[in-house]
## 1
Amino acid sequence: MITLTLAEVAGATGGTVHDAPNPQLRITGRSASDSREVGPGGMFVAVNGARVDGHDFVGQATATGAACALATRPVGVPAVVVPDVTAALGRLAQHVLTRTGAQVIALTGSAGKTSTKDLLAQVLARHGETVATPGSFNTEIGLPLTVLRAGENTRYLVLEMGARHQGDIAYLASLTPPQVGVVLNVGSAHVGEFGSREAIAAAKGELVEALPPAADGGVAVLNADDNLVAAMAYRTSAAVVTYGTRESADIRATDVQVSAGRASFILHTPHRSAPVQLRLLGAHQVHNALAVAATAHAMGMDTARITEALSTAEPVSAGRLQILERADGVTIINDAFNANPESTRAGLHTLVSLSPDRRTVAVLGEMKELGDTAATAHRDIGQLVGDLGIDVLVTVGTTGEMAALAEAARLTTASPLRIESADDLDALLPLLNRLLTSGDVVLLKASKSVGLEEVANLLHTEVPA
């Protein structure tokens, strides 16, 4: 990472130095907005959030090694004081970008952002020093903090960009202007906020609009199999590289096969073709891998190195089709980080493909923020549970949507389907402990606010006697 001084931070953010005898105090460790994550010699970013005020945790941050703080008021330790911490953090990220020669690659989409970002970081690391967004750190706080991790030798800065409103991605792109923009898909995540898939496409397309022209190195990487994404080619002056399974795609896959939950395919680039065997779970990972291959190809990586890197890449972020094996022979698929109809369908297909000869258990909670489409979306998921022949369905929650999901599954299935329900998380863990037996494969999937991530971890660690 690039070493900064308090005076340099103050100059970049328009702030003033307080409680620091030496304004040349150097920031040498990781900066963070969570007091528990600040590295020794790092800067604590005191964000005033909706639930907590970061200023209340300055003491905790300094006790664990923070050298200073970015704050809106003096806090009794060396600090740069600014009117708005979030805006100042964005300006500081812009300043750091001027000191690194890193190429900024930004990606967005309704589903698969984090998995694709993790995969892209592993592939590009074969081509040069790469820094990527940790987890789903894709907001106006997390994205600048990622930039602060870049060093003078960083070649690629891979940034995940999320959006809940029109203009969010345009703002993030203004903080860290990308040379390369990758759009994965347009689905129904947050459709309750946006109103329609077309409105979501308008928001996601802000990324390609922020790219420089092709003559200045701008590249838009677009999914040719998603019509709303493919249409974004007309919204940018950057060069366009397409990927998908269509013959017209610049980077494409053929001979896609899935065995034991993992996909293989033949990757075709303009230079050559080569086989890929993914270690990531799910047939949907093929499109994520193609997005990565298209980006790496645009960065000058040869096909052989791309396919080798794709075939050796491992899952990184927890809660996304994460396999947890229990000593009693139960396999847990923790896919509970978040949920929308597209990712839930992918999770259910993965559950079935991973375990053709084992009992399958789907633990499903509500998919949030779907607006007027919520009832239909949950019924559709219930029908898929029935169509796939899943053995056991466990619903979590008492909403009408979950009742509709269970009823649709019951009406659709052609094979015996056991349906259980838990009103809340307190009832869920005991239910699963009674239900699961050696050899079962259980998928946990719901929106993050439902809280199934914690249940997945407890289910893994607290094996019943």
## 2
Amino acid sequence: MPRRKAFVLFELMNAMLYTAQEAKARGFDIVALNHNPLCAAGPFTVPDGLVDERVTIASWTDTPALDAVLKDLADRYDIVGTHSMFEPTLPHQAALRQLAGLPTTDPATLLRILDKTRVRATLHDAGLSALRGVPLDEALAWENWEFSRAAVLKPANGTGSALCFEVSTLAELRDTAERVRTADVVNPLMRDYIRAHGGFVLEEKAEGELLSVESVVHRGEVGFVTLTGRYVLAADPVVEQGMQTPYHHPRLAELVEKSRAVHECLGFHHGPTHLEFMVADDGTAELIDFNPRAAGFASPVSIGEAYGLDYASVLVDVGCGIAPDLGFTARPPRYAVEMVVLPPPGTTEFRTIEFPADSIAARATKSPGERLSGRADQLDAVGMFIVTAPTAAEAHRRGLAARQEVVVNGVRLGDNPHNTVAFSEHIGRELPAPAGPQS
């Protein structure tokens, strides 16, 4: 008897819902490997009947147990595709793709890409980065500050911008190192991933504008999808607060070329990617993070809203090893602004959140009663939403206005310090679009 064709999602959550629905529409069984429960509230609620089999994963760090799960799936199903958006799952996704004979970046290469210390050293040696990075233990042994600039302390294997801190002196470094040793990451999946791999890296800080290059790689061929501009917290630029899609930055062509070179240098072979760059005024672009997955938040929704398609169809094609059609990137776009909001200063518990009525994919990112740090921390984000408009200027204006109208625990956010964002001079401007798809 022929095995049923299955599309496997690793930790099904958020906008992965649409990828699962697209794969289901193609006639595939949907298998979800999840540690967390499937979403049961908000715009990403998983409807009854979508998932044909849910496999509970006790821990994404237990490789022997996971290998047994993957082998069992490969024995019982004809695995036709996979999708993942969460770093701890990516090497396991690659292992299943190998078992199924699907194109993939091999697990060993993915582990190297997920290690920020190794990525920085590789790019530096290849002449693709001028920044230096050292393990935290090595930096703590310094007698003097050995960098010529400020630096960012972050987990060597991190996710969601968790536990990232800017420091510029040995005293600040030692104080911050003590804080991160005792800091609690509220999200248990992020906490387990960071702790399982251990170690922090200190990297020289890149100056300039933060933005992202979204791509899909098919069997080694890098296809550019879009550029996204960023909103960051004015009081702490490490804290990301939103993005504009698309973003026709004046350095777009150079960024696409730099992105392609980084992919090739690191050996990424197949799948969606989300690369974060800092771009200086002179055009120098420094890679900040190579994420071997599609962009988070509800970016697939933003891309779909901007270009008038269900972007899940692209992600399913890539997941199934089918060359994606990126012709849509040549269409005149709408503009989508996705915003992330923090609670008012001093808030230590999340209770409720209300969004403007015309928001798209508006959702709470915390559960009622969930504790918060009271600080302006990336992991204290309590909600996200999208607005769109026919022009970049209008989308920008609507996004800024809408975030002020969000109500958290009965309090309108307004222009409190945790809700004041900074952005590039190019955000919200009508910049020339690229001539066609960037290969």
## 3
Amino acid sequence: MIRKLAKFAFVPALALTVAACGGNEPKGETASGSGGSSSKPGLRVLMQYGQFDPNQDYTAKVISEKTGYSVSYEMLPAENADEALNLLVINKEPYDVMKLNATQFFNLASSGALEPLDDLIDRLGPNIRQAIAPASWESATLDGKIYGIPETGAGIAISEELVVRQDWLDELGLKMPTNTDELYGVLKAFKEKKHVIPLTGSKDAVSSLLGDIAAAFGVTTDWVDVNGTLVHQVETEEMKAFLAYMNKLYSEGLLDIELPLNTNAKAIEKFSSGQAAMFKIAWYNSPATINALTANFPDARVSLVPFLKDKSGKASVYAVSGTSWYAVVPKFSKHKEDAVRFLDAKLQKDNFKEIAIGKEGVHHEVRDGNYYPILPAFNDDLNNASVFMTGVDEANYPAYWQARVRKDPILQSYFENIQANAEGLIVTDPLAPAPPIPEVARNKLNLMQLQLDYMINFIAGAEPLSNYGAFLEKWREQGGAEMTEGANNWYKTAKSK
């Protein structure tokens, strides 16, 4: 991969590079694609970092063929990407399209570095308007103007669910737990009669500690609407009740005592090696987990634990939703109209389908109305397809995307069973449709780490729950109060529309 050092007007002591894989400027003469012509200008597209050469990728070639545009792809560096992006903007590097995360999008849109797209999309983007749902535009709108095409991903899906050694449940004559009281009894039996770690987990992220058990206490979304006002989950009594329960499990040896040290990989290892009876499995890790368990214990049987019910007998599960990426046109683009035409051509229905899952009969096939990959062509050619997306056909992409989970029977089984178990139980965050909120953007990461550290300490008993009020004061002082104010300013405005 060739690296090109961008020439900046001002460069600090930090050496920042932008990957210009292939190193070629876009050519004005292009092969004619869908509606393409040789008069179309070459375009420059800035992408997020990836460990491949985008200019040599199969998907890049399909995009040029379908849109009629010759494209030179460049990437932000793996480290210090935000700093590199800021310097590119200062230098007015003439990119025509950029793919940005939420923080990058807000910083550039609010500083006037992005072209408002309302008029351009209205005139040149009929496929964009058809592909993107009206509700999705809220996340890309600042001060009443659209500054990017929101990319919402493959729709709402649940990633994780508790899994248990079914053979051990049967051996001990235990029923599948349906609530936290029953779960406590099952874990206690595993400890006393199987002499294993009843429940293991990891400290990798706040989401690693939450999930099925937290939801049974009412802790699901980051933000909760309390009488029209957003309250963060750490400021709820439900969070304290959840932590008290987890501390009880930990102090009685029912929760892995090495939880404060475990990575997700370590938790998988403990379950697959027979050291632990339960843990939270992710569908995307299921083949490695189940194959390792079967290799160690050929007769082992496992089952997903249905999402636990709360005291009222209702189960719920949190699903991440909202916008993942933004495709934008910088103010300093030399080809703004062509940039929008290019983005629009990518979202033409047939073009998008081929970009997403390739050619039927070559990369995928349709069986019973579902899309299945044809291997190895699907993996060989389409492994990086999602990286090239700049908005998705929101109505159809979830169905296309599921071809990716049908590459392996275990992967498919866990994905589909977890979704089936979650049907009718899903809740989403009230802040999900919001555009990037500056008070949230500048505080969220630090506050998540503070929350994670304290949650681990409260669970493990290193910090008594009687100190929860002191934690909240620190959380508010270190940005929680500001973040809550910013979240509510948007929420109340959005509700009044």
## 4
Amino acid sequence: MTHTPGTAPVWDALGGDPALLPRISYRTRAGSLPARLPVIAAARACVGACALAGAELAATRAGRPVADVLVDDGAVATAFTSERQLLIDGRAPVNFAPLSRFWRTADGWLRTHANYPHHRARLCAALGVGADATVEEVAALLAGRSAYEVEETVYAAGGLAVALRTPEQWAAHPQGVAVAARPLLTRDRLDEAAPRAARGASAPRVLDLTRVIAGPVATRTLALLGADVLRVDTPRLPEDPDAHADTGFGKRSTRLDLADSADRRAFEELLTGADVVVTGYRPGALDRFGLTPEALVERRPGLVVASLSAWGAYGPWGGRRGFDSLVQVATGIAAVEGSPAEPGALPAQALDHGTGYLLAAGVLRALTDQARDGGSRVLRCALTQTAGWLLNAPRPADPEGPEGPEAVGGAPDPGHRLAETDSALGRLRYAPSPVSFVGGPADWARPPGRWGTDEPSWAPRG
């Protein structure tokens, strides 16, 4: 028997019709994303639900039955490590900066995140070391400090550091208690806006206000399925070019400073033609620009708004910054995957990728529901909620591999699953999307372009 969180609970959380679940078939492969926790099963469930939601929306728009879906563990495992599979003219990106790592402290372990220059600067300032501090210097300093004290000191300075906790410690933490009270994702209808045309309608237009992995994975998936996705970034906060190369497939990318009146007018003009807005910034960070779900749907009734955060937009950590690696440490995943000697990590940024596919699935289902019943729709996901779902799922009997007798073949080799294309960024080797259904797209319509170089306008509708 395969130990798995299962697609059915995910599909139920999305409000999907359970009668559609038999449309999904699975090709399981032993050794995919091996871990103590059921990572491949969770990944499979997220991708399966997303693919089924895509097939359902396509069927609604075309006026035909819902197509069959195939979920292949090899494709899922490869896609969940897409940032590691990427090559740009033969060069492999660096996924973690030197100061993004575990540190031994006087009372346990600490993990920091300093991939972005402004996060590194805040971390170093909070620790009282120079901006050019070495790993050895920081390690010596932290060895004599409390992980919990450093966590609070760095957070107060706007940096990112999280003390290692066990699942039991996280369950007792006020933020852990708040997260446990939430479902995997939340779905709300805010009003009685009229349905938008579905059959034969043009591709949905998506404003993408996300960064790093989870949010961009969601919008990358929407782009695969035909959405006109325009990523909007502030020119004040450049994106990692390698992260953009990985998650920019199928999209266009522009820069707007919402504090500038002309750029703000350009954004409002985009909003008048949008069907979906996806946000992935720290909760509250965009509120001053009128980008709360309530403010957005007031200006654009019938909109689907999807928001993503690390810790959840509630509880004592609701306003904190966060990343997948830090959520693994706080929630106890790193303790479960580690050893008595040191903490561990999941075999992929599975919270990011899994939540990304969940968010995309939620948008697809919301578009289907909106076309049928109208209403402005709001979805909310958090990496901690995905982490809680994973931690509470039945664990594999064999800690080295979560698959049971139905699995076929050995550990998947991603090599034959990768694709290559030319782009404005160079020759790219990349992981194709694992989202697949009969009659659906096989690949993205366009490779990533250069970050922030497209006009702030929608593509013409046919």
